[in-house]
Amino acid sequence: MVRAAPVSTHASSSRWLRTGEEGYRRMLEALGEARQSVRFETYIFRADDVGNRFRVALEEAARRGVRVQVLLDGFGSNAIPADYWHGLQQAGGEVRIFNPLTWSSFAFRDHRKLMLVDDARAFVGGFNIAIEYDGDGVERGWRDLGMELNLPKAVHSLAQSFDEMFEAFDLRHRLLRRIRHPLRRAIPNAAPGPVLLSGPRLAGNQFRKSLLQSLRRAKHVRIVSGYFLPDFRLRRMLRQVVRRGGRVELMLAGKTDVPLTQMAARGLYGSLFRGGVKIWEYQPQILHAKLAIVDEAVFVGSSNLDTRSFGINYEVMVRLDDPRIADEAREIFALDQGRAIEITPEVWRASQTWFTRCRGFLARVLITKIDPWLARRQRRRLS
Predict the structure, then answer these.
(1) How much is the pLDDT for 12?
(2) For residue 133, what pLDDT is reported?
(3) Which one of 73, 110, 111, 322 is the catalytic residue?
(4) Per the CATH hierarchy, to which homologous superfamily does domain 11-175 belong?
(5) Nearest CA to 51 among 71, 24, 69?
(6) What's the pLDDT at 184?
(7) Residue of 134, 156, 288, 336 marked catalytic
(8) What is the pLDDT of residue 92?
(9) Would the CATH topology of 11-175 be identical to that of 178-363?
(10) 288 is annotated as an active-site residue
(11) In sequence order, which residues have a C-beta less than 8 Å from that of residue 223 and are 6 or more positions away?
(12) Residue 178 has what pLDDT?
């Protein structure tokens, strides 16, 4: 049962986790302080130094009598040894694998990153649990970002969504169709939030809907996305912001772990440049952060701006409308700009050889056409 947390109701009681190093430190501290419950959900969990630290903290919490529930994706965390969680399970903890790999449903992944402690604190963002995220994003470790939330409305919604995912971990509930109606009720005509959920059979993509709604009157948009392949409507909305006299700044990946996505994304730069959009590419490390700042609205969580996050994966984002949070987000963006290079139209055109354009086109076809087609076929089998 989800219990309301006796903490501040204002978003300013929340704080940014500006690096993977800071995020891990705060999460481990919270695990050490847990007294009632821990809900832990992630896409990638590796049995390395970082993963072992979290495993020990989860086991210690379970031994104190804390109810510990762990939900890991069947693809992202498939390399974990079979007996890795034996100690936690012996201590009373529960571990479930979301959608274990099968040929009939491999497309649908739990890409969410979420930890809740005592129904009072929630951690969201881009952090997976693996050694490559442990650093400052400049000298070492991927560039990532998260948020520690003490906002009861958000914590309650996140706990409820975890419980539903945890119960339907094997997709026997027809791709979580049961939670479609609560999601619909959560979207009034006004700006939805703070928690924005999405998945292949949920009531549309909450993050995309809220972002598009915010862009209609936006004056200044800043977006950080390590995997950037927005659909035509979102690209058009970004160009329209500039046409109305606004400004759009994108922070994208200079270094990447998924070259296919980067090739596809760079092929779209031309249409964005023609609309007046400014683009930077982050240089020191692989960019993995997910952040959108639309005037005073801030979006942070697990969702990329690409086809898979918008229509195939299960994702969780949080929208906060708070001046302090927005000011700090703009400060984070400005610091990353200082570590990035601006990609000008002239530089981009010089890089677009015939071979590069062909590779980019084929990458977009694979990501935006073939991958969704496979997912639709699998979804029909599970319906």
Answers:
(1) 54
(2) 96
(3) 111
(4) Endonuclease Chain A (3.30.870.10)
(5) 24
(6) 37
(7) 288
(8) 97
(9) yes
(10) yes
(11) 248, 249, 250, 251, 291, 292, 293, 305
(12) 45
Domain positions in the chain are: 11-175, 178-363
For residue 184, give both structure tokens.
């619909």
Q: Is 111 a catalytic residue?
A: yes
pLDDT tens digits for range 164-183: 999 988 876 555 554 443 33
Long-range contact set of residues 10-13: C-beta below 8 Å, sequence gap at least 24: 10/151, 10/322, 11/151, 11/194, 11/320, 11/321, 11/322, 11/324, 11/325, 12/322, 12/324, 12/325, 13/150, 13/151
The one catalytic residue in 73, 110, 113, 119 is 113
- Domain 178-363 CATH (choose: 3.40.30.10, 3.20.70.20, 3.30.870.10, 3.40.1440.10): 3.30.870.10
Regions of the chain short of the pLDDT cut 70: 1-12, 172-193, 201-203, 382-383
pLDDT, residue 147, reads 97
Is 86 considered catalytic here?
A: no
- 118 given a catalytic annotation: yes
Cβ atoms of 34 and 113 closer than 8 Å: no
